[in-house]
Amino acid sequence: MIPADYTASLRATAEYIREGDEFLVVSHMQPDGDAAGSTFAAAWILQALNKSYTLINEGPMPEKYMYMAAGVGAIQAYDRNPPERKFERVISVDCADFGRIGRVSECLSPQATLLNIDHHATNDLFGSVNLVRPDAAATVEVLYDLVQELGLSMPDGLCTCIYSGLLTDTGGFRYSNTTPKVLGIAADLLGRGVKGHELAERLLETMTYGQVSLLKRSLNTLSFSGDKRIAWLTVTSQDREATGASSDDMDGLVNYARNVEGVEVGMLFKEKEPGVIKVSLRSGGAADVAAIAQTFGGGGHVKAAGCTFRGTMQEAVDAVVREVGKGIA
Hints:
This protein is an alpha/beta fold. It contains 11 helices and 12 strands. The protein has a 6-stranded parallel sheet with strand order 3-2-1-4-5-6. It has a 6-stranded mixed sheet with strand order 7-8-9-10-12-11, with helices on both faces. Helix 4 (156-169) runs antiparallel to helix 5. The chain is globular. It starts with a helix and ends with a helix.
């Protein structure tokens, strides 16, 4: 059953979109499959309503997600080509807080209103209108509900975007967020012609050479706490340079720490630049990694979260491992 407040939020969201003519659509920095799927799904929705839109992310959209751009147009990378104009109506997708859109915030006019569509439990409701459902497996699930609320048809491209976001955020329908509703949506989309096996091959099975090279190197750093309930990997800037790997090639590395038998929390420490360490955390359920990430200014879900640590790699490892230890004590 859909909660009454969520039903009201769906109606408010539909009204916000119908009232506007032109929109900026933005997702979080370094977009994953759900962020990409949500961005392009939002474009499909706006296109169906004859609205104008511009898609921007702080950096380039990973190439492996660009198949979803077919039919809705290109997405701009702010750090390569910042627009000169300002936008007054903004749709943020898959962002738990306003800071996650990065420098794209500079595109907003002082009078801008913002529609916040998300599924993170740590979302701080930063929008003028908020459509947030923490029990949804992915933001694309929320957008699927919005399509129903708006009474729109579902062209092939939109179906592909929604299925892609569900597939990646549920780990191929393996994680605990794979609810009966999620499988019902997936079944509906497959019935509409989505080629699920092809998307699974593209998004979950295929590895780049850089990704394999980085995996070989990072596994040499695999470390454990004394009781072996916490495990972590590290990736330095030198590792990326030596392997020719991109930031996208780090997708999924954290699971190699988490999937070791007996490990409750797995982590990946990634040096973005000297003094800036990005941390990805995955939990088997014994610890709320979203709460742990929040102590370092991050956020996410109970079982999957992230944060940024300012300091050396060793300082980051020491501080976060210590905090995780408290969380599973």
